[in-house]
Amino acid sequence: MKKTILHFALALVLLCTITAGAAGETEIFADSKVTLSGSTDKNAAVSITVLKKGVTLEEFNLSSNPETLCLCYRQTVSDEKGAYSVSFDIGTLSSEYDVYTGVSGKDKPEYSLLKYVNKDENALALTNLAAAFDRETDEEKYSEFESIVKNKMYALGLNSDLIGAANLEAAAKIFFASVKKGDVTTYETAKTAIDKSAAISLSNEGKITVTGINTVKSFSLPESVGKYLEKSYIDDETRTFIEEKISKPSNSFGEFDKSAAQAVGLGVIYSSDGAGGVKSYLTENANLLNIDSAKVTDSFAESIVGKKFNKISEIGLDSFVEEEKPIYSGGSSSSGGGKVSGSAIGGIIPIIPEPIDKTTDAFSDLQGYEWAQNAINALREKGILNGKANGIFAPSELVLREEFLKMMLTAVTFEDLSGAMSFEDVGKDDWYYEYVKKAYIAGIVNGVSDKIFGSGRAVSRQDMAVMCYNALLKKGIINGVGEVNLTFADKDSISSYAREAVSYLGSIKIVNGDDTGRFNPESTATRAEAAQMIYNVIAYTENK
């Protein structure tokens, strides 16, 4: 038996009759009967060994009496579909067990932690926990809590590492300040409450982090907060920034959740890949942040995205003055903002594009982007875009706001206009200065705020649509008719300032959704997507 397990290894998923879990950690809440099952290659020899807590695989293999160390050892063969299962009686003692599962032909077994909670033991532990609420003094409550948590840790399904590290008296104070007797009458609610109390006490002492990948689950953050920690833009720098903003100590769940919500919100504002993410977070968590969700507009979110604040109260929500977005209807009507001199801007005096060396090799990196190949090659021939290097287009790279604006103004040309521009992040020495100035004066673009254009930031798909829509309106190629029927599956995610542009351009096939019918408004655009949209604009213009 000992040699057999040494020559097996696991590459499968462990399951039980109640809950399935990948190899690593499996939690089972059941009576004494347990079934572990999974799948591998067909007709493969499979072994499962469940060792008692604290017994290592080496000790098991070297022991002259391995059966005394082993709770279960089973060998089986997977069926024609690769499925296998073994059942055994695990007993009535809640505990943690080490599981090693192997497959013939592999070099070593794979380890998984099995956390077993016996139903009857859990019911008794919950009864004892409920009784602690009836103690006369706080000291008696705290003492009873400590005793139950220590002695019934496995029966309650608690995180043993967390409980072992925590000051249980401090955790008890947080626990009784946060929950009522009726709140912890089930396995899940009691487990969650106790683990959270222990986690907060450790956070107060600076021993664990709220945003840690291995610890965040124990804090049971509100779903509207926790899901944002899974965003790709929440990197290590942002996690450190969030940790610095969490107020300590927190003496209750409510106090902690509000502190964490504010800190995560500051991280989202600083690192979000678009204003839409900022708006969503602030509106979803308005109660925790003590703000008025009705005041969180698209323009406000755009004005703060990318900035660092110390407190949510510093973001200026109550003092923000809304500025109307320059999305025009009525074709060649004047801008209404006094930025355009003259009654029309339809002249053909283009900004001279950079020269295109048409002797260079054709782009060789468009595999997987066949849907945009015609657009990319056509724009190269027209002198609207260059590659990144000889024969290299880099279709998957992101497009900056100023880069897309240049492409759009080279495709849809405007005469020189008099006026001034006051973007603080666009200098006269910047290569894109004239493009941004022309587009600003013409009312084609507004910045991410009244003073910031957003240069250096990747352009979103909805902002590309707004730029193209405004250019076509000001050119008189289309007549704005307001928002038409939006058919995209994620239409509710499109910001209000962009809905008219996206809906109208969608109706004339200048913008399209993905294979699932989603427009993905806040996604940053690739060079291939930008080329396709510009190509669609030109094709529509030429066919008018």
Per DSSP, the total helix count is: 19
Gross geometry: globular
Q: What portion of residues belong to β-strands?
A: 5-15%
Per DSSP E runs of 2 or more residues, the count of β-strands stands at 10
Biggest sheet: strands, sense, closure? 6 strands, mixed
Mean pLDDT comes to: 82
> What is Rg?
31 Å
Specify the oligomeric state. Answer: single chain
Helix content bin: 25-40%
Please write the string of helix (H) and strand (E) elements: HEEEEEEHEEEEHHHHHHHHHHHHHHHHH
Taking pLDDT < 50 over at least 5 consecutive residues as the criterion, the unreliable ranges are 1-23, 323-360
Distance between the termini: 80 Å
- Structural class given helices, strands, pairing? alpha+beta
Detailed description of the structure:
The chain is α+β, with helices and mostly antiparallel strands and 544 residues long. Helices cover 37% and strands 11% of the residues. It contains 19 helices and ten strands. The protein has helices at 2-6, 57-62, 119-132, 138-151, 160-165, 168-178, 187-204, 223-226, 236-245, 253-271, 275-284, 286-289, 298-304, 370-381, 401-411, 433-441, 461-475, 496-507, 527-542, and strands at residues 8-9, 13-15, 20-22, 25-30, 33-39, 45-51, 70-77, 83-89, 95-104, 110-118. Strands 1, 4, 6, 7, 9 and 10 form a six-stranded mixed sheet that branches. A hairpin with a 4-residue loop joins strand 2 (13-15) and strand 3. The relative contact order is 0.07.
Provide a compact summary of the structure.
This protein is an alpha+beta fold and 544 residues long. The chain has helices spanning 2-6, 57-62, 119-132, 138-151, 160-165, 168-178, 187-204, 223-226, 236-245, 253-271, 275-284, 286-289, 298-304, 370-381, 401-411, 433-441, 461-475, 496-507, 527-542; strands spanning 8-9, 13-15, 20-22, 25-30, 33-39, 45-51, 70-77, 83-89, 95-104, 110-118. A hairpin with a 5-residue loop joins strand 9 and strand 10 (110-118).
